[in-house]
Amino acid sequence: MSLVNTVFRSKKSPLTKIRILKNLKKIRHFSISALVHQKNDEHIMHVFDRNTKSLQRERAASAQDANLYDYLKDEIGYRLADRVFDIKRKFKLAADIGCSRGYFSKHISPKCIEELILCDMNRFNLDSVQVQKGIKVKKQVLDEEHIEFEPNSLDLVISSLSLHWVNDLPNAFKQILKSLKEDGVLLAAVFGGDTLYELRSSLQLAELERRGGISPHISPFTEVRDIGNLLTRAGFTMLTIDTDEIVVNYPTLFELMWDLKGMAESNAAINRSLHLHRETQFAAAAIYQQLYGKTDPETGKTTIPATFQIINMLGWKPHPKQPKPLERGTGEVSLKDLYKLDEIIKEVKKIKSDDEQKN
What we know:
This protein is of the alpha/beta class. The protein has helices spanning about 5, 15-25, 35, 50-60, 70-85, 125-130, 170-180, 195-210, 225-235, 255-260, 280-290, 340-359, and strands at about 90-95, 115-120, 135-140, 155-160, 180-190, 235-250, 295, 300-315.
């Protein structure tokens, strides 16, 4: 009997297994809603082991083939740099928090930034960062858990795929806001709750069948609604939050897990399970292939997709000259009339043209 067929061999009925799959989709990510709605900010929910994360990053940065695992983070860094370019302003002083191997800095143009402070908890990463000519560079060893800059000193703060490992995210946002000048900008990207849901479901099903229980093998991620609440509570205004989904195809589960290790994105949660049994790994690989696998009709090769959800956030430090929303009740168009929006726009243009002719 093949491994695929033996994975679901248990006393559970088919109907029970269907219910398990549905429930796994509901619990596949960890939400920090409890942290967001905490009234007492002194009580911090310590989810991640920062020492473990530091060791993982150091190991990944010192690997001889480190550049092989840059493809995902390099793409996100490029997209963040493109978003900075969309802001029609040249920033005098910017800080890249958790710069890693320079996934953002290598793409940013000197037309956008005059001086850039590269911050990372690993000195080896700082030594290997590349920046385009024309940008003044400062390097600073800094842990994202303890963000310290001079108050009102920065025009722009960038963070590309590093803040999702911070335990005290509310305080991190407050410190960033404090360091920004009025009308300063925070632009960041973090992994969202739907990241690696295929891997999470496969591991949970495999452990449920083989070990009789579920252990957390993938670190928790935050949700879009939580990011918005945290930024608002920190004091940011004019928020823009959106998500991207990047799907990467791998030959099997094992190549995916190997690349996650090379990216320094391995599980660093405090209550993580340190050992994944070999039997469970093979069962998870078979389940992954069975539930999500795809076959190329031309080549006949099978691959498995891995989804990475990216939450992009942009927030501004308040400034008196920033545009403000109108007071409630001042709207002239009802939402129920949106279906005839074209007619409303034509009528407004006609009224304006008549007023101009009179003047």
